[in-house]
Amino acid sequence: MAQFELHSRNLAPEQVAHSHDFHQLILATCGVTELAMEGQGGRVTARRGCLIPSSRHHEYQGDGSNRTLVLDIPVQHLATLEKGSEIERLFDKPRFFTVPPALNQLTHALAHQLDQCPALQNEIAVLLLRALYMYLQDAPKQTADQLGVRCISERLDLERLDAWLDQHLADEVRVEQLAALCALSPGHFYSCFRELTGVTPLAYVQRRRLDHARTMVRHSALSLGHIAMLVGFRDQGSFSRAYRRYFEISPSSDR
């Protein structure tokens, strides 16, 4: 039996309130989940994660189109890890934290790996936990360049861009439109966006379309052609090819 339980979930738009006797790490690759714990409220997005200590009451409500990694961490198992006591201190109190581009990219990759090899959930969970520890340990030591990236992040406001994209997945999306939302020139926006996320704006749009498409493929009865149209592909063939390249499985097999 795995020591750590890691699941990729779509959190539904129903409010849930509970507590549990294990720590929990929440990360998202797309979508939004509203979460509150002990008077502290916030949103879990691709840019913002959450640490929930054991036995702390919390409430959450997803948007129904999120893709969220939920890692359950039994306190007694932390002692089996290298630097387990230091990792334990991450859960001294409830907290939200900024997810840097490198951790976001790792989250995407590990979510994909979890889908392909669910039997490896414990190994994937340990890797994710160690990566988080290294990031949070290094966060207070940011260089001036890293602080500059944070300023770019605040100017770009990816949460606002994500919300806009989710309303326009079926439409043609141009870099000029995204730049205008951030009050930046297209050239400046392009370079800032790539520095922040590690991908081009249009590659980011494609990834978001496919993440939403996978939710519909797995959790709806819509035809693949209809899903392709809803997320902005001109036909089912181009959608299926892009889906297979990104997820390494066809949408019909994934369903």
TrEMBL record:
GO MF entry, a single one: sequence-specific DNA binding
InterPro entries on file: AraC_XylS_family_regulators, Homeodomain-like_sf, HTH-like, HTH_AraC
Location of the HTH araC/xylS-type domain: 159-255
Annotated Pfam families: HTH_18 (PF12833)
Annotated PROSITE patterns: HTH_ARAC_FAMILY_2
Transmembrane listed as a keyword: no
Keywords: DNA-binding, Transcription, Transcription regulation
PANTHER family from the UniProt entry: HTH-TYPE TRANSCRIPTIONAL ACTIVATOR RHAS-RELATED (PTHR46796), TRANSCRIPTIONAL ACTIVATOR FEAR (PTHR46796:SF10)
Official protein name in the record: Helix-turn-helix domain-containing protein
Organism: Vreelandella aquamarina
